């Protein structure tokens, strides 16, 4: 890889780093599904290194992606590259130690969750702040163009104030549950209370070891209640959000590939009443395929000092403390907990 972009390495070269790019069906909708695809094309980053213990991953980095410096030894790659940006796609656990070994570092783009528990994530973000290292977390919906428009007033214009919200996720509370809660916060505002609705159960075959599935409710600062229910992805996948407002309904299904607006209409069964046109949606064009690339755009601008991160570490910590509160509520007998 050549160019004058920020010297960049990837730590952890698995599914989200490069594997998902091999899924032909995903490629129909996601131009940029992986970090490797973005780094191959983005002029703001000079991709020089990969660190991974897997020989197969190392071979892919060399042979498929033409990465010059590949090893299982972070210190070796760090000496050879002197990275300014690190993409940390390895599981939580030793991320502060990674940053400690990279003295030239200016920014990290980190996979979620930041840690096994909100306080571990907070400690990592605080450590990066002490080192003057910017943190961007791959809650990728924060980089999506359409979702940014909805968050900045487009949702209220279409459906007014939310009255009721229904949501589903699978493959783990701290995996897709984190994406979902962060998305809820992005679109609908902050969480006031958290309440578990049942006892968590193990999330079978989830990407994060020890993760769980849990049903819970969030009361938003604006008063609306969000009911969140887990699904078994062994039957089908869905990370979905269905928002019923005072003036319409917006549903995001097919794991964000389908965005449907249902406006108000005259009630077909009663005079002088209204209904949601649930059988006549207006389909909004999704923009998810470029969301990860746009997060990198924003990261480069953050390093330049011309922007603030769209998905900063502090926001990720807030989301992950909410997830932790779900577990705390379950342990207390499903008590309703106020969240600050």
Q: Helix proportion of residues, in percent?
A: 25-40%
Q: Indicate the radius of gyration in whole angstroms.
A: 21 Å
Principal-axis shape equals globular
The CATH topology annotation of the largest domain reads as: Rossmann fold
Query: In the residues, how many domains can be counted?
Result: 2
Oligomer: single chain
Strand content: 25-35%
* Derived structural class: alpha/beta
Number of helices: 10
**What is the H/E string?**
EHHEHEHEHEHEHEHEEEEEEEEEEHHE
Question: Which stretches are low in confidence, meaning pLDDT under 50 for 5 or more residues running?
Answer: none
Largest sheet: 10 strands, mixed
CATH superfamily of the largest domain: NAD(P)-binding Rossmann-like Domain
Tally of strands: 18
Topology readout:
Layout: E1 6-11, H1 24-27, H2 35-41, E2 45-51, H3 55-63, E3 69-71, H4 74-81, E4 85-88, H5 95-100, E5 107-110, H6 118-130, E6 134-137, H7 145-159, E7 162-170, H8 176-188, E8 191-196, E9 201-202, E10 212-213, E11 216-220, E12 225-231, E13 240-245, E14 248-253, E15 258-266, E16 274-276, E17 282-284, H9 291-304, H10 313-331, E18 337-338
Parallel strand pairs: 1-2, 1-4, 2-3, 4-5, 5-6, 7-12
Antiparallel strand pairs: 7-13, 8-11, 8-18, 9-10, 11-12, 13-14, 14-15, 15-16, 15-17
Helix pairs in contact: 6-10, 8-10
């Amino acid at each position: 890889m050549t160019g004058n972009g920020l010297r960049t390495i990837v730590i952890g070269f698995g599914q989200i780093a490069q594997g998902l790019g091999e899924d032909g069906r995903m490629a129909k909708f996601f131009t940029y599904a992986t970090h490797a695809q973005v780094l191959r094309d983005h002029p703001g980053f000079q991709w020089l290194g990969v660190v991974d213990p897997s020989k197969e991953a190392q071979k892919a980095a060399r042979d498929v992606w033409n990465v010059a410096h590949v090893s299982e030894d972070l210190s070796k790659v760090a000496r050879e590259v002197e990275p300014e940006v690190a993409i940390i796609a390895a599981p939580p656990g030793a991320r502060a130690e990674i940053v400690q070994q990279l003295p030239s570092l200016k920014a990290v783009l980190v996979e979620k969750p930041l840690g096994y528990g909100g306080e571990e994530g907070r400690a990592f973000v605080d450590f990066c702040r002490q080192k003057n290292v910017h943190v961007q977390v791959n809650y990728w919906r924060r980089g999506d163009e359409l979702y940014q428009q909805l968050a900045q007033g487009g949702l209220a214009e279409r459906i007014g104030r939310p009255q009721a919200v229904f949501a589903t996720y699978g493959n783990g509370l701290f995996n897709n549950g984190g994406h979902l809660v962060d998305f809820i916060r992005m679109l609908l505002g902050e969480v006031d209370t958290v309440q578990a609705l049942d006892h968590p159960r193990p999330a079978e075959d989830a990407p994060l070891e020890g993760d769980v599935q849990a049903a819970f409710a969030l009361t938003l600062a604006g008063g609306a209640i969000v009911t969140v229910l887990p699904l078994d992805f062994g039957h089908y996948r869905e990370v979905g959000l269905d928002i019923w407002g005072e003036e319409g309904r917006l549903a995001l299904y097919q794991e964000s590939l389908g965005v449907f607006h249902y406006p108000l209409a005259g009630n077909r069964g009663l005079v002088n009443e209204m209904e949601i046109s649930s059988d006549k949606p207006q389909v909004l064009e999704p923009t998810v395929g470029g969301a990860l690339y746009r997060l990198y755009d924003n990261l480069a601008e953050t390093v330049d000092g011309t922007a603030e991160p769209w998905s900063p570490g502090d926001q990720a910590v807030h989301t992950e403390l909410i997830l932790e509160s779900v577990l705390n509520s379950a342990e207390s007998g499903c008590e309703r907990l106020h969240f600050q």
